[in-house]
Amino acid sequence: MDDAGASLPAQLRDMGRAARAAAAALRLADADARTRAITGMAVAVRADAAAILAANGRDVADAQAASLEPAMVDRLRLDAARVEAMAQGLETVAALPDPLGAEIGRWMRPNGLDIARVRTPIGVIGIIYESRPNVTADAAALCIRAGNAVILRGGSECLASNLAIHAAVEKGLAEAGLPQTCVQMVRTADRAAVGLMLTGLEGAIDLIIPRGGKSLVTRVREEARGVAVLGHLEGVNHVFLHAAADLSKAKAIAVNAKMRRVSVCGAAETLLVDSADAQRLLPPVARDLADAGCDLRGDARARSLVPGMAPAAEADWTTEYLAPVISVAVVDGVEGAAAHIARYGSAHTDAIVTEDAAAAERFAALVDSAIVLINASTQFADGGEFGFGAEIGIATDRLHARGPVGAEQLTTYKYVVRGTGQTRP
What we know:
- The chain is of the alpha/beta class.
- The protein folds into 2 domains: 8-230 and 405-418, 3-Layer(aba) Sandwich (Aldehyde Dehydrogenase, Chain A, domain 1), CATH 3.40.605; 237-380, Aldehyde Dehydrogenase, Chain A, domain 2, CATH 3.40.309.
- Helices cover 42% and strands 19% of the residues.
- The chain is built from 14 helices and 17 strands.
- It has a 7-stranded parallel β-sheet, sandwiched between helices. It has a 5-stranded parallel β-sheet with strand order 5-4-3-6-7. Strands 1-2-17 form a 3-stranded antiparallel β-sheet, with no helix packed on it.
- Strand 3 (124-129), helix 6 (134-145) and strand 4 (149-153) form a beta-alpha-beta unit.
- The radius of gyration is 23 Å and the shape is globular.
């Protein structure tokens, strides 16, 4: 598959065939083998930490030389703590209950047929991602936990990092006696590889998952032919301060949701404030955001309460800043907040801060986002925080999976029907 003399289409075609064969082997592998593979990956990531960090250092230097945006460089950068977090995430995935074979439902028909709906692997997954090298480890572990072979195509800006992490992944697979082709990495920065994967590689790929910016997700959705796509939109996320919000909670949640890490897709991009008590809530929250280094852009009602705030343009309401910038709007109650989110949001993650339980439940019912939080920061939009160990991304589609995509979300199901000789009249 890594034959430099072969054409790129031939290389990808061979990878697809190898992945299909590996997926068949994974279906026969027991849960313990898959657990040993993921645990072995964690051991190898720790052992190879110096090599991974050296490769990442080259990627970061090249990204800075190319004047990549600071948010992209932050997503790309690894340090010792992030490598250790990667290893710990692998261990968490290894410890997850095995999803395969689990019965989702079971019932008996009047004719005596025993019908069970059970989880089964999807097959071969293609994952196309940008910037974050930790996705290489996360995707490998989650796909193996769910019994899927995977072909990874990371961003050109982190190719060296991805290849170093992939080498550790291969060691874990070998340790467990599983084919190394269970997890394959496209070893070229040539963007044509993406287009080839979007053809499905002659039916080898069952599902494509894009993880990256809006342009990548749009390209995948528009160009995928003969292969399903599980996509996500950018995180245009909102924090709504209801009139019954506790001020100390409002300040802490708003600052954390925006400023804990501005480059993640769970960062808040818009602050909504209830007009019924905006005078109490907005000025102190705006002050804390500004003190934390955040620029605020508001509508007319927000600026009347915080005169120094810059005006927001229409485009601000749909912008994923990935920077210390937040747009601010004053809205009329839960209905006003939900209407704003429905018009401008991306169905990713939205939060309400309130001590009114009825208002909280009303918000949760009205806001149709993949993740809705009550009195908690949007930065919890993360598979690790949900107990999944890791995630492939936050799905905003309404079919198959929504929210953090972990091992369970990388399975499908089949029906096993047990009879005693029944025939249909």
